Amino acid sequence: MTRLLALLALALSLTSCGSVDVDHYANQQPSLDLVQFFSKPVKAWGIFQKRSGEVAKRFEVDVQSHREGNNLILDERFLYSDGTRERRVWTLTPQGDGHWRGRAGDVVGEATGQVAGNALRWRYRLSLPVDGSVYEVSMDDWMYLMDDDTLINRTSMSKFGVEVGQVTLFFRRQAGAEHQ
User: Are residues 114 and 96 in contact, defined by beta-carbon separation less than 8 angstroms?
Assistant: First the structure.
């Protein structure tokens, strides 16, 4: 039992040491401006991978946005490979110095994020329905602006500090009129 606890403590300490701070990307270009990026309709394509690496779901997302005062509203419409649909509406509020807070219906409490250079780190807890049950999982999103129209998102999902899966998304701004 002591050996098992020691191995568990070692594993947890190793995973906590590997975290990169978003400020590491402060000088990376192009600079990510969330309001600017989402000023046009956005289409995204993604996958959810189980911890084993198996792709469990593929999905597409259509994102429309608008401003309400200082808030950036993102209306995300998901279509999954099994035909199911989901909608998440984010209200993002700038806090100054690249910091953001966000709320959505299935987010537990408040999401917190920080932009530096071309990167955004976004952390929150999500109520995730799976096979008739709802699980609360921690989401650690990293988004990287590749060019003016392309954003790559890599998310680690964990429960009790153990990774249960990963989400990978590619966002592409669509041609058309900019939102006001």
Answer: no
| Structural domains in the chain, sorted by start | 21-173 (2.40.128.20)
Residue that the structure tokens 């006001």 belong to: 180
Question: Given this model, what pLDDT does residue 177 score?
Answer: 53
Query: CA dist 109 to 70, 103, 105, 106, 138, Å?
Result: 20, 7, 10, 9, 12
Whole-angstrom distance, CA of residue 71 vs CA of residue 49: 32
pLDDT attached to residue 162 = 94
Which residues lie below 8 Å from residue 166, measured CB to CB, with a gap of 6+? 48, 49, 154, 155, 156, 157
Whose tokens are 């189980």? That residue is 50
Decide if 145 contacts 38 (C-beta within 8 A): no
d(CA 109, CA 102): 9
Low-confidence ranges of the chain (pLDDT < 50): 4-17, 180
